Amino acid sequence: MKKSILFVAFSLFVSSLSFSQWEKIAQIENDNLYHLFQLNNETTIATGEQTSIYDLQSLNPSVPITNLFTYGFITSSLSVNDTESYIGGGCYFPFDECPANTLHKTVDGGKTWSPIYTDVTFSQIGNILGILPVNEDELVLVTEYYKLKKVNLITGDSSSIVIPNTETSNNFISGKVSNSGKWLVAVQFYEQGIASTQYFESEDKGDSWIELDMLLSDEEKIIFLDYLPHNNLAAVSNKGNTYHSIHGNLELKGNIGDAYPQITSHFAINKNDWYISSFDGDSNQSKLHQSVDGGVTWTIDISFSNGFLGVLSFTDRNNGFLIFNSREVYKKTGPNTTLNHEFSSFTISPNPANDILHIETDLEILEYSIDIIDAAGRKVKHFHSSNSEYNISNLTSGYYQIILIDTTGKIIGREMFVKG
Fold this sequence. Notes:
The chain has one helix and 36 strands. It has two domains: 3-10 and 341-419, Sandwich (Immunoglobulin-like), CATH 2.60.40; 21-335, Methylamine Dehydrogenase, Chain H (7 Propeller).
């Protein structure tokens, strides 16, 4: 049974308010953090020099839980399921100080790691910049020097995979995999001292490849490209423009109008929820920008002075981590929007809205109430579901959360909307 609930709203004005708060959880001493890797919805690790690993959910996330080897760093990861993951890395020079193996595996959700021995060594391939799944016994390593290496985890043997038209490339940059198993590899070329990046995609685990058309102009370049659900791609340019790539065609979605000159990192959670950080070298300031509508409109989630905002990792729009100045870890905590699948079917359209907001739910029960919560977590409105139209024109502009509650007090639906 569908019910339509109408909310009267004024024209859209997006506020910087949010339902969650950032908290500094770690100050790292005598190390620098370079990456965040999400192993599952419950475990995110930070990695630093000397291949140190920090469990950000531990009681003391400022102290590493392990160092895999003395020289080097971790540069890539692949999560197979909630307990099984791989991480790959590299070493500093000289080569003879680097161990033969630069690939490790966990089967207990990141508590312990074991080396995977193959005939691929750092001196041969450089850093492992991406890990792609083939089957239970094989992985493909996206490597810095020798491109793609397929390794057998049982025998340790390896073979090369060649992407057509990359023979003259200088190095490979990254490798990513979509939910359906597509592979995306970024390749860097240098011509007359100018660097350019080309992207290649495979739907058949490396047997064939197509080059994606990501060219914009001489001044505008794609600098971040990530998979979204249903194999679409989220793209960000050096000009602060945001794009969707659908079937290889770039579609402009919006622009981060108040971004600093340098776009430093990007994290696309799903087709709606994106985060981007920007940096101003002259003032040494950083901003974290958030979009809840797929890159169309943007707000400032948090700003930082005196430093560089690095890598990001999020499980949903309200929960995640960031690294600041390579030494500080911040955690964002709020309502977990990924839990909505456990509730009733709950959709809002349009969102953002100009004047009227429609909500549809598949609830079979006749009795439930509606709370509207502001960004500070305060209940600002309460309605009974028997009403069909609710005037919220006296609310201030910004993000709000609609919560549906049954007669026992249990939350049965939750979603965000923007009020003007």
